[in-house]
Amino acid sequence: MDSISVLNIDLFQGGKNTPDFYFSTLKTHFQVGHRHLEKPHRHDFYATILFTQGTGIHEIDFQKYDVSAGSIFFMSPGQIHSWELTDDIDGYIFFCSQEFYEMHYVNQKLRAFPFFGSVTFSRKLQLNSRELNMNLMLFLKIQDEYLTQKFMKNGLILSLISQIFIHSARMFSRDLDPLAASAGLSYIKHYQDFEDCVEMHFKNERSVSFYASAMNISSKHLNRITQAVVQKTATEVITERVILEAKRMLIYLDESLVEIAFRLGYEEYSYFVRVFRNISGMTPTQFIKNTGPEY
Fold first, then answer.
1. What is the rounded radius of gyration, in angstroms, for the C-alpha atoms of the chain?
2. Distance of CA 173 to CAs 120, 164, 197, 260, Å?
3. 104-158 pLDDT, tens per residue?
4. Is the pTM here over 0.85, yes or no?
5. How many Å separate Cα 271 from the centre of its chain?
6. β-pairing, 80-85 with 90-96?
7. H helices of 82-231, where?
8. Distance between CA atoms of 215 and 243, rounded to whole angstroms?
């Protein structure tokens, strides 16, 4: 299999003097002729995309989302994505690195926002007309700053993108389970800590007790948090992260299925297949076949 290309911001900059940041309308972004956009690819930066016109499908880490006016997407480094969009598509897109964000927000991690830090959270918000207009104002202000050389330009850009992220995080939280909503930010923060821990250890540690102990809470409370925030057990969250990694490896690593299973901690390939099928609804072999030749 061919490996999935990993794109960096320099590829899009075109001589702009704002390091680690890129902004464009979607029409211009596509018209520039980035051939690497035609196939599934990955980024080494954070991306935010607002659609104002057109329709289509946006696939992120094998999850397909409908695209329409008011769709806003958030993508983290390493995620595989591709899209099929109508010719009349338009909107705005910006990329930024963690280093750029920390220029003014020291030690503030972009992963702290649920749509960037969580594998389980949806990567899409569908904005109503009021929310779309509010975001449009912020995107247009970013565009104005990006195209000028004004004093403290980057500081204002960072302030504007932070407003987009904060407003969006609040919109995500309104759709939480009532238990999570009543618990406020505490449950979300604990859930993000859990996912950070899973991200570090999922290849070797699968037990809920391990993660609960690392977080200094009980397994029962950890399950209460995951059920409230994402309506899943802690075990389901851990297993889904493993299977997401398996899907990525199946696509971009030239290794046998048995080797991939072993790398993910499954000594028995038959057990790996059962887990994969339970989560994905298909076997690893069926998944490879169904992903299509574009991968």
1. 20
2. 14, 14, 22, 36
3. 776 677 877 878 876 667 789 999 999 999 999 999 999 999 988 888 888 999 9
4. no
5. 28
6. unpaired
7. 98-101, 114-117, 129-146, 153-174, 178-183, 185-201, 208-214, 219-230
8. 23
Cα angle 143, 146, 148; round to 5: 110
278: exposed, middle or buried (C-beta count within 10 Å: 0-12, 13-18, 19+)?
Answer: exposed
* Distance, C-alpha 162 to centroid of its chain: 17
Residue 219 to residue 207: CA distance in whole angstroms: 10
d(CA 50, CA 70): 7
**3-class DSSP state of 33:** coil
- The values of phi and psi at residue 201, to 5°, are -125, 0
Q: Which residues pair with 7 in a beta bridge?
A: 43
Burial (0-12, 13-18, 19+ Cβ within 10 Å), 234: buried
What's the one-letter identity of residue 133? N
Instruction: Tell me the residue type at 262.
Output: F
The DSSP code sequence of 45-96 is SEEEEEEEE--EEEEETTEEEEE-TTEEEEE-TT-EEEEEE-TT-EEEEEEE
Asked if residue 36 lies in contact with residue 7, where contact means CB atoms within 8 angstroms, the answer is: yes
pLDDT of residue 293: 52
